[in-house]
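Async update (no meeting this week)

Hi team, since we skipped the sync, here's where things stand on the single-chain job. The sequence we agreed to prioritize is pasted below, unchanged from the tracker. I ran it this morning and attached the output directly underneath so nobody has to dig for it. Comments welcome in thread, and please keep replies under the output.
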Amino acid sequence: MLTHQQEQAFCRARRDAIALNYPKLNKEQKQAVLYTEGPLLLLAGAGSGKTTVLIHRVANLIRYGRGSDTPEVPDWVTAEDVEFLRNYAADPSREDKLRADRLCAVEPAAPWSIIAITFTNKAAGELKERLERMLGPEARDVWASPFHTACVRILRRDIEKLGFPSSFTIYDTDDTIRVMKDCLKEQNMDDKMFPPRSVLAAISKAKDKMQLAKEFEKGAVRSGDFRMEKIARLYTAYEKKLWDAGALDFDDIILHTVRLLQQDEGVRTYYQKKFRYVLIDEYQDTNNLQYMLATLLAGGHENICVVGDDDQSIYRFRGATIENILNFEDQFKGCRTIRLEQNYRSTKNILAAANAVIKNNQGRKGKELWTAGAEGDKVSLYTAMNEHDEAQYVANRILADYREGRKWNEHAILYRMNAQSNMLEKAFKQNGIPYRVIGGTRFFDRAEVKDMIAYLCAIHNHEDDLRLRRIINNPPRGIGDTTIDRAAAIAAEQDCALWDVISRAEQYPELQRAAGKLAQFAALLSELTALSQTMELPAFYEELMIRSGYVAMLQSKNDVENRTRLENVRELLSSINGYIENAEGEPSLAGFLDEIALYTDLDNHDPNEDAVVMMTMHAAKGLEF
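Output:
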C-alpha cells in the first residue's frame, strides 16, 4: 500500500516519463498533448505547430490513455515501481522503456474511440499517415475526417430512423440550384425576383438554426414579411423534392445528423460511449449546427479538445460564428486554455506585420505571435496603376526569382475572388510561366464527368429524379423533354418517383407514343443496377461506359473537344481505383459516391507539382506554403 506522498510522487514521475516522448515540443505544446481529460481550448496561432500537437495528442491517448492527466494510481503499483519510474524519468534507458510504458498507461484509448474533425480530407489523411508511421496500422482506425464525411458515415448507418433511405444521394451546389429552379418554375415565381442562390442561402441559414420547412413557414407567416413567406413556400417545395428523391444537400448532412442524435436515444448513447475523445480543428470557422454536433458527440465522456484561432475566422459569410470559440470557456465548465504563440513558419518581419494588422480585430481573446527565427526580408508593398500593371509586376517578380534558381512552386498568389485570376493567367501565358488554379473548374464539375456520376447515382438510387432526368436522353434515345415533363407531371400527381412512372410507361395513355423507348431505358438501368451488385466497381464502370452508349457517342464525334471529354470519362476510372486503394472498410458504389460528393479541389493540391499556385484567400485555408 502506497502512502499519499508516494502516490503523488508516482503521478509526477508518470507525467514526466510520458513527456519524454515529446522532446521537440515547446512547453505549451507539451501541455496540450499531456492534458487529456475534460474540455480543452487550444488557441493556436498561424504556424504554431498545431498539426504536430494534434498528432502527438492522439498518439498519447492511444499509447497512454489518461496516464498523463489523472491522479489515480493502480492498486498493483509498488514502492519499488515508484522509485523505478522516478529514476527512469530522470535518466531514461532503452532497456527500461517497456516497463515504463506499462506503468504509465492508464486505460489507453482504442483508435476507433477517437474522432478528429479536420478542415479538409487532405488534413485528415496527413494526420492518419503520420500517426501510422508512429504507431503502426492500428492508427488508421482513428475517425479522422471533415464534419461532412463523419456525418455521412453516421447517417449511412442510421438515417432510416428519420425516414430517409440508407442509399440517400448527396446533392452538390449545382444540383441544388437545378432543384430550386424547378421549384420556382412550378410555383410560377420569377427567378430574377427570387435568385436560386439567394433562396438557397436563406434556406441554409434556416437549417443552421435547426428549422425545417414547416417551422420556417410558421415564422415567416408570423413576421408578415411577404418575401419570406414566398421563400418559405419554396423551402417547402425544395424539402419535398429532396425527400422524394432520397437526397440530402450539404446542410442536410449535418442537420439530420444532429436531429438523429437528438431524437434517438439509442443512436446518441452509442456514439457518446464510442467516442471517448473528440478533437475539432479550425473551431473558429464552425457554425451553430457544427457546435451542436460537437456537443452531442462529446456528451458522454466530455473530453472535447477544440483547436482554433479567433484571429483566423474567415467563413462568417458561410454561417461560421466566431462566438463558438470566444464562448467555449463559458459553454464548457472547467475548461483549460492553452495559447500556442511561438511561430515556426515565418520570419520576424512577417510576424510583426501580421500582429500589427491582427491587433485591430475586435472581440478577440488576445495573443502575440513570436518567433526565434531570423528577421527575414521586409514586407514589400506595390501599388499598381491597374490590373494589367499588377499582373505584369507579379509575372516579372516570379521570372526574376526563377532566373535566380527558385522553383515555380515556391510562389503562391492569393486574391479575394476567382475573377481576379484572369489578368494574372494572361500574363503567365504570355511569359511562359506554368501555373495551377485551385478552385477553378473541378474535374468532378465537368459536364461529361457529372453525366457519368449521374448514371452511378441513378443506378444506386432509382428515386433520384434529378440524376435520372440528366441521363434519360443522354446519349440521345429519342426521349424528348415533352415526354419527360409528362412523366414528371404524372409522378407529381401520384406522389411517386419519376422512375416508378418510366418503368411502367405502357400503363399511361399520355406516354403511349414513347412507351417503347422508355421501356428500353428502364431495362437498361435495371440491367446496370443488377450488374453493379455483382461486379467489382472498376469492371462495372467500364461496362457502364459501353452499355450506356456514352463512350460511343463521344467517339462518333471525333474532334479535339470530344476526345478530351472521352479522356475525362475514362479518367474517372482512376478516381475509382484510387478510392478502392484507400477505402476504409469494404469498397462500394455508395462509398465512392460519398467520397466524390464531399471532395474539394484542395484535396487534390500537389505541393510537388512545379507550378505557381493561384487561389482565393479562402481556398488557401488549411494549406501551408
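Quick observations from my side:
The two ends are 56 Å apart (CA to CA).
The chain has a mean pLDDT of 91.
Reply here if anything looks off.
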